[in-house]
Design goal:
The chain has a two-stranded parallel ribbon. The chain has one domain. Helix content is about 40%, strand content about 5%. Helix 1 crosses helix 3. Its cofactor is a divalent metal cation.
Amino acid sequence: MGKAQKYVLLGDVTYPLQDWILKPYQEDATLTQQQLQFNYRLKRAHSVIENAFLRLKARWQILLKCDDCSLELLPTLVLACCILHNICEAHDNPFNEEWLEGTELTELPKPCQPAPAAMEDGQAEQVRELMCQYFESCGEG
């Protein structure tokens, strides 16, 4: 689209719009078809991410009990689990669906109220608009 973009994190409507946090448009009757398509694609991407983290936590259940280890060790532990998980996935190591039992109960609380508008970055709307245009140019999917 002619503008270099850095990486962004995906958030939901409860997060403030920042140039590094991509969140959907607020659902209302004024959304364009392009904005609705953007929200749909963001929701699909978010579900893929949630599924990946669910599988990671299920395979490496030490991640469910990280309060047992020191804060200095935590980044190394998470990185090691991610690397081992990716190796297992790349080599089609079977994933046991029974591992999923109990992992959903450990979800951390998420904010339930939208972030105040004052926390939003005015320039971030340009990033979201560029991504919205990009998604439209990619066609259906």
